[in-house]
Amino acid sequence: xxxxxxxxxxxxxxxxxxxxxxxxxxxxxxxxxxxxxxxxxxxxxxxxxxxxxxxxxxxxxxxxxxxxxxxxxxxxxxxxxxxxxxxxxxxxxxxxxxxxxxxxxxxxxxxxxxxxxxxxxxxxxxxxxxxxxxxxxxxxxxxxxxxxxxxxxxxxxxxxxxxxxxxxxxxxxxxxxxxxxxxxxxxxxxxxxxxxxxxxxxxxxxxxxxxxxxxxxxxxxxxxxxxx
Length: 228
Hints:
It is a single chain. The protein is mostly helical. 82% of the residues lie in helices and 0% in strands. The chain has helices at 2-28, 34-63, 67-92, 97-101, 105-125, 129-134, 136-150, 158-186, 193-220. α2 (34-63) runs antiparallel to α3 (67-92) and α3 packs antiparallel against α8 (158-186). It is globular and about 50 Å long.
């Protein structure tokens, strides 16, 4: 099991580095350009491997009796996987809001609500209110998915909003996981306020700001539609 854990851990780090690079490349390239689309595809593929290795690491935490850590890792897996799934799914259903909101959407909603509930419990038991607070993301995703399932969006560019939100949401969760968990492993002695709070807060602030900017530009103001 230790050998599997080490292989998964180092694979997670190596592939995660490529995922980071492709995410930022897609973010800074012209929307709809060949570079943007190619980087986006690489990001989705590499994130699939990142989630798979993260699942192995999560299982290792449970096997070793680290139940609270394991539950929180499950939460991160769920919200990251959901954001990635929704962002990619939006491209498949550009002209079909009902199709986008159907299928597994209600199941995804319930899964995120349950995972968020677990994160709240972990935050309270560990006396980490920030962890409990960050569970709000899972609740928002979950109830948002259920609402969308009952009433599909009617905005003609709904898919663009969902794509932007999904990709940036996956990026936020990825950065939070690295900054809050990865940095602690790299710098175990650095238990400072900066290393415990800002790694959580910075990706959220930057990610939500970027999402608001792109949504306002491409969805609300109707800027030239990217070819994706």
